[in-house]
Design brief:
It is built from eight helices and 17 strands. With 319 residues, the protein is α/β, with parallel strands linked by helices. The strands form four sheets. The protein has a seven-stranded mixed sheet, with helices on one face. Strands 6-5-4-1-16-17 form a six-stranded mixed sheet. It has a two-stranded antiparallel sheet with strand order 2-3. The chain starts with a strand and ends with a helix.
Length: 319
């Protein structure tokens, strides 16, 4: 089974007053070409599909057009979750039409996807709050997905059944939620994946420099806690993360926990980093393997310091 992991498209995002829509269209064409070339069975989009809760018409059109092409008439599953920049309601709004194309979109951690079956053989076998099991065309074993879109800590605790009298941390609640789903559905007879849009690190890891200031401020203001790799259930093949814009191998054993990176450079601080999608190959009861596929579209962000105005003007004209 081949899965393509991508995240943080941020459609509609600008760099200062420069539109990035043309670059976003080009890089999504590249992602679609990779999905076709590698003949992937499912595409996983780990949040922040838009840059704003109320995106432009152009960004919305690009989003739906790209998802439809990725789904390839229902021959490939496309599964996306909301990130901290997305409106959960907007992400879930096209559900009836999206399902008809093989596209599954989850806005809230407690949302439950509706069963369906397409003529291609793509079908939902089982669902639960934050979980779906898929039968994929041409695959004998199912794909199990534990799905946790972003929500701030107060709302996440409410969704997970906590109340003001309970002292459990968000980490404890997520761990219990994920473990329950894994124990119930994730046996060795399928491919088991967790996808979430949260700030995930190893316990005790130095997190300085991992996030750009914009992403850190959003999560800090929202009251989101760092989640540790030790909170993830053991019965998985792969964990697809979104939120950080660099490719990061948070953990590789006993299974990969990976940030795929954003498809484009979205800040000057991020200017020197190569962007990727991640191709995951998995089979039942075997460790998953993965490799980065570099993305070549998009303009580089440049930054230069000058001591004299004439030098600055000359450099700007050259670029």
């Amino acid at each position: 089974m081949k899965l393509l992991h991508t995240a943080d498209w941020h459609l509609g995002k600008r760099l200062e007053h420069f539109s990035r829509l043309e670059e976003q269209q080009a890089v999504l064409e590249e992602v679609i070409d990779i999905a076709e070339r590698e003949q992937v069975d499912a595409v996983l989009i780990a949040g922040d599909m838009f840059d704003h809760a109320n995106p432009s018409i152009e960004a919305i059109e690009l989003f739906y057009r790209s998802l439809k092409r990725l789904a390839d008439g229902g021959r490939r599953a496309v599964v996306g979750i909301a990130g901290n920049h997305d409106s959960p309601d907007r992400i879930e709004a096209p559900d009836p039409l999206a399902r008809a194309c093989g596209i599954l979109l989850l806005g809230y951690p407690q949302s439950r996807l509706q069963p369906f079956e397409l003529e291609t053989g793509l079908k939902v076998l089982r669902t639960d709050a934050g979980f779906v099991e898929l039968g994929l065309p041409g695959q004998e074993v199912p794909l199990r997905l534990i799905l946790t879109p972003y929500s701030n800590e107060v709302r996440m605790k409410k969704y997970l059944g906590s109340n003001e009298q309970q002292a459990e941390s968000l980490r404890q609640l997520l761990q219990a939620h994920w473990q329950r789903l894994a124990n119930t559905y994730c046996d060795p007879a399928g491919v088991n994946v967790l996808m979430t849009h949260l700030f995930v690190v190893k316990k005790g890891q130095d997190t300085s420099g991992l996030e750009d200031e914009e992403e850190r401020s959003v999560l800090t203001l929202g009251g989101a806690q760092e989640i540790y790799t030790e909170n993830f259930p053991p019965k998985l093949h792969y964990a697809a993360l979104g939120h950080l814009h660099s490719f990061i191998e948070v953990q590789t054993q006993p299974y990969p926990i990976i940030y795929s990176s954003s498809p484009l450079c979205y800040s000057v601080k991020d200017r020197a980093k190569q962007k990727y999608v991640v191709l995951v190959e998995a089979e039942a009861d075997q460790p998953a393997s993965y490799r980065q596929i570099p993305l070549k579209s998009g303009k580089p962000a440049l930054q230069q310091r000058f001591e004299h105005i004439d030098e600055a003007l000359q450099w700007l004209q050259a670029h």
